[in-house]
Amino acid sequence: MPMTAPPPVILPPVPPPPVDIHVKAAPPVDIPVHTAWGEPRVHPAGIVGPKAVADEDPPYLLDTGDRLRVFVYGQPNLSRLYVVDHRGFISVPLIGKVRARGLTTYALEGSIRSQLGRTYVRDPHVTVDIHQNRPFFILGEVRNAGQFPYVNGMTVRTAVAIAGGYSERADEKRVQITRRINGMVEKMDVPGDYVVQPGDTIFVYERWF
Description:
Layout: E1 31-34, E2 40-43, E3 67-72, E4 80-83, E5 89-92, E6 96-99, H1 105-119, E7 126-132, E8 136-140, E9 146-148, H2 156-162, E10 170-181, E11 184-190, E12 201-206
Parallel strand pairs: 8-12
Antiparallel strand pairs: 1-2, 3-4, 3-7, 5-6, 8-9, 10-11, 10-12
């Protein structure tokens, strides 16, 4: 009888040897930021410094002097212009004093809606818009110190121009803004391109010769 060849032996595949991969972390990098005066400042690596640019503008909070347009659907006697008084309230027919200071327009809508809906108006639809921002004030070494209407996006230089410009004794590099933030009064030394907010008080210092 003819001899047959034995069947081939199939060996399992041999896995490749493990590879030890080391990822070298990049060294920390000093990140330059700019101060409010535009001066570069480098914070040491690993230390978080102030943000050079804010992520987004904070919500506008109402205060004394803001002129508001309130519209209540189907209620012409309630739909009118209101001015936030020196105590931070507006006076709305039927419900009386409503606190506005420290609220956004959206929050004020909810407050008016809630109070009207209790007994006077069924399911009221209320909208509140800013008709005119509260004024700003500028004092110190300017030609015409006083109170002026706010202009959207205005800077310290814009405010000084509205007040007639710097006086001859003004120190143009020393300007302070007083601002109410979350119920607290804060004072800040600011450059000329700093953005002014409604209700700010700007003070220009005198130059010492």
